[in-house]
Amino acid sequence: MSVEGALFISYVLNMSDEPSDLSPRSNKEAMRRGLLARCPHCGEGKLFDGYLTVVQKCSSCEEPLGLYRAADAPAFITMSIIGLLLIPVLGFGFVAFRADPLTLALVVTAIVGALTLVVLRLVKGAFVGFLWAQREIDRGA
Ligand SMILES: [Zn+2]
After folding, report:
1. pLDDT-based confidence at 117, cuts 50/70/90?
2. Centre of ligand 1 from the C-alpha of residue 73, in Å
3. Ligand 1 centroid from CA 7, angstroms
4. Which of 19, 32, 58, 119 qualifies as a cystine partner to 45, CB 3.0-4.6 A?
5. What is the tens place of the pLDDT at every residue in 52-106?
6. For residue 141, how far is its CA from the centre of ligand 1 (angstroms)?
7. How far away, in angstroms, is 133 Cα from ligand 1 center?
């Protein structure tokens, strides 16, 4: 059995044994903690092991964070945010600076690339926090 499968079974068993775990979870607080790359449950332990890998368990409160699979959602949300920012930046940059199109493309590509890497981590943290608050665990479907 995989680590995720064992975590899922222990999580389900713990939920049925501990009704107090079914207390309401705040989306806002969980997403804020996730945005800061902290555990959505306690706000103390780290959410990521490295750049984007979610830890299997919180080092502080043992919450099984590895069960909350964000999949492609953070990438899609990041693309939407960056794409919406890119349209006015390209238009304004082209009109205001009268830059050479190749120069503008290279500068914008570098900025967008760096910005995407920053925003993706923030969005993934917030999204995992949202999944935790909604108890949207990976059920292996
Ligand atoms: Zn924690």
Report:
1. very high
2. 23
3. 15
4. 58
5. 999 999 999 999 999 999 999 999 999 999 999 999 988 888 899 888 889 888 9
6. 26
7. 13
- Say how many Å lie between the CA of residue 61 and the centre of ligand 1: 4
119 is a domain residue: yes
* 135: DSSP letter: T
What is the reported pLDDT for 94? 84
Number of structural domains the chain divides into: 1
Q: What is the pLDDT of residue 31?
A: 97
Tokens (6 digits) for 128: 């995992």
Quote the domain boundaries for residue 31: 3-12+25-133
Calculate the average pLDDT of the chain.
Answer: 88
Ligand 1 centre and the CA of 32: distance in Å? Answer: 14
Q: How far is the CA of 91 from the centre of ligand 1 (A)?
A: 44
Picking from 63, 59, 52, 71, the residue whose alpha carbon sits closest to that of residue 25 is: 63
Interval between CA 44 and ligand 1 midpoint (Å) = 6
CA distance 28 to 35: 10
Q: Is residue 101 part of a domain?
A: yes
Does the residue 140 lie in any domain?
no
Question: Does any domain span residue 60?
Answer: yes
Dihedral angle, C-alpha 9, 13, 15, 20, nearest 10 °: -150
